[in-house]
Amino acid sequence: MIDLKSLNYLHGFNNEHETEALEGALPIGQFNPQKCAYGLYAEQFSSTAFTAPRSENRRTWMYRIRPSIAMGDFEPIEKGLIRTAPIDEVACPPNVMRWDAQPIPEKPTDFIDGLITVAANGDAKTQVGIGIHVYCANKGMEDRFFYSADGELLFVPQEGELIAYTELGILHVKPGEILVIPRGMKFKIDPVDGPIRGYISENYGAPYHLPERGPVGANGYTNQRDFQYPVAWFEDRDEECIVVAKFCGELYQAKQDHSPLDVVAWVGNSAPYKYDLSRFNVINTVSYDHPDPSIFTVLTSPSDTHGVANIDFVIFPPRWMVAENTFRPPWYHRNIMSEFMGLIEGVYDAKEKGFEPGGMSLHNCMTPHGPEADVFEKASNADLKPQRYENTLAFMFESRYVIAPTEYALRSPTRQKDYLGCWGTLEKHFNGKM
After folding, report:
1. Which of 84, 122, 187, 227 is the Cys-Cys partner for 166 at CB 3.0 to 4.6 Å?
2. What structural domains does the chain harbor?
3. Using DSSP, how many helices (H) and how many strands (E) does the chain show?
4. Cα angle 198, 204, 210; round to 5
5. Is the model's pLDDT at 62 over the cut of 90?
6. What is the DSSP string of 28-75?
7. What are the beta bridge partners of residue 301?
8. Is the bond leading into 86 cis (omega within 30 degrees of zero)?
9. φ and ψ at 5, to 5 degrees?
10. What DSSP character marks residue 208?
11. Catalytic residue among 11, 172, 258, 290
C-alpha cells in the first residue's frame, strides 16, 4: 500500500504541468528528442483533436519505459451490467424514478466487476451524450487495469476512500471529493480501508471545463487553484498484467508482460485530477427568490448549441439560505434539461424522506417534479430567518439529452415503485379569494 501521507499534488485546472520521478527525465526545450534520457520512449497522449483551439487543446507527453503498443491483441470479454448509449434494450418511460443505494457486494468484487450502468443518452460512437454508472467494490484490481475509449470518467465517491493508480501518478480520493480521468487514460482503483461505492458520469462529449462566471466576475464558483493533479510515479515491474478497455460499448482485454504504469515523467494538460467539493464558493441570493440551480455548476461539458450543456455537474452543498418572502426549496418545475441526482451525505432539502445517501433519482425532460408534499407545507409556513444548511451534499448530472434508464435499472429491486407517493398528499389550497 502506498503511503498516503507522502502523496504530493500539482495545482491548477487545465494548466500545462510538468513532473518527473527521476531527475532529468523530462527533455528541455523539445518534446520528442532523438534519444530520451534513461532510455525512455516519448509518447503523446491527446484527448482532443490536434487542431483544437489552443484554449481547448488537451494533450500530454509521456516519457515511459515502454510505449503503450508493447502489448497483446484485445479479445472480447463479458461486460456484465455495463451498457453504453444508445440504450435500446428497453423503452424510456417519462415517469419520475428513484432508487435506494446499490448494496455492497458480499463476494470479492473489484471496480470493473462492480460497475453497473444505470442510464445513458446520446451515442458514444458519435461522441455525444453521457453514461451514468454506479460502482461498488470491496477489493483492489491487483494486476488488472482499465480505460474507457468511449468517454471521460467523473467519479463521485459516496462511501469509502479510494486510491486511483493512473499512468500519470496516484490520487487519493475521499467522499466529498471528485475524480476525473481523461478518455483513454489507464488506471486501477483500490479501496483504502473497507468497501467503496459511488457514482460515475462517462462523458462521451467535449471534455469538462470550468463554467463561465459572467457578471459574477473574476472569483467564485470553482477556482483553478483548487484542482489537484498527480506528480509522476511509476512501476518498473516485469510481470503479466491485463488491460481492460471499454470500446464502442463492449469490453475487451489484452495481456502484456509489464505494468502499464511505467511513465517516469510527463508534461501537458490532459491528466487525471481531483477536486474537493468543499472548496466550491457558493453564490446565492441575498434578497428574494430561489435562483436557478446552474449557480451550483462545478464543471460543464458543452454541446454544439451555445449555452446548452452536453452535461453539467452540479452540487448542492452546505450553505446559508437568507431569501426573504420566498419559498426556499426548489420550486415545482418542468425542464427542457434532464436531471439525474445522487446524494453523497445527509438530507437533500427538497426530499427529506426516502432519498438516502447512495440513492439516485431521475427526472427526465418535461416530466414535472419538485419538493415532496411535507416539504412544501413546512417551507410554506416557515419563519424565514437566516438558515444554515449543514451536513448535506447532493449532486446532479444535468443533460440536454433525455436520460434513458437501462433494463437493469428499471427492474432493479432497489427501484422505489412508490416514489410518486411523496407527492400524494399535496392538498388543494385554492379558495377563489386573495
Report:
1. 187
2. 4-96+104-277 (2.60.120.10), 280-422 (2.60.120.10)
3. 2, 28
4. 75
5. yes
6. SS-SS-SS-GGG-EEEEEESS-TTS-TTT--EEEEEESS-TT-S---E
7. 311
8. yes
9. -70, -15
10. P
11. 290
Q: Are 87 and 261 in contact (CB under 8 A)?
A: no
> DSSP character for 381?
T
pTM above 0.90, yes or no: yes
pLDDT in tens, 16-26: 999 999 999 99
- The one-letter amino acid code at 279 reads R
Question: Looking at residue 153, what is its pLDDT?
Answer: 98
Sheet holding 144-148, edge to edge: 75-77, 250-256, 241-247, 144-148, 187-191, 162-166, 169-173
Annotation says 172 is catalytic: no
Distance of CA 71 to the CA centre of its chain: 29
Collapsing DSSP to helix, strand or coil, 215 comes out as: helix
Could you tell me the CA-to-CA distances from 217 to 186, 222, 283, 299 in Å, in that order? 37, 12, 12, 17
Q: Within the chain, what is the greatest distance between any pair of CA atoms? A: 85
Going by their DSSP bridges, the two strands 263-268 and 59-64 should be labelled as antiparallel
pLDDT in tens, 315-354: 999 999 999 999 999 999 999 999 999 999 999 988 989 9
Q: How many residues does the chain have?
A: 434
How many Å apart are CA 158 and CA 178, to the nearest integer? 10
All three cell numbers of 393, joined, read 451534499
CA distances from 405 to 47, 219, 251 (A): 28, 37, 20
Say yes or no to pLDDT of 1 above 80.
no
Per-residue pLDDT of 273-325, as tens digits, reads 999 999 999 999 999 998 899 999 999 999 999 989 999 999 999 999 999 99
Q: Is residue 145 exposed (0-12), middle (13-18) or buried (19+ Cβ within 10 Å)?
A: buried
Query: What cell was used for 79?
Result: 461486460
The span from the CA of 67 to the CA of 42, in Å, is 8
353-389: b (≥16 Cβ within 10 Å) or e: eebebbbbbbbbbebebbbbeebbeebeeeeeeeeeb
Q: Cα separation of 29 and 264, whole Å?
A: 18
Q: Are strands 273-276 and 227-230 parallel, antiparallel or unpaired?
A: antiparallel
DSSP 73-126: --EEE--TT---SS--SS----S-EEEPPPPPPSS---TTTTEEEEEE-SBGGG
Instruction: Indicate the SS3 state at residue 409.
Output: helix
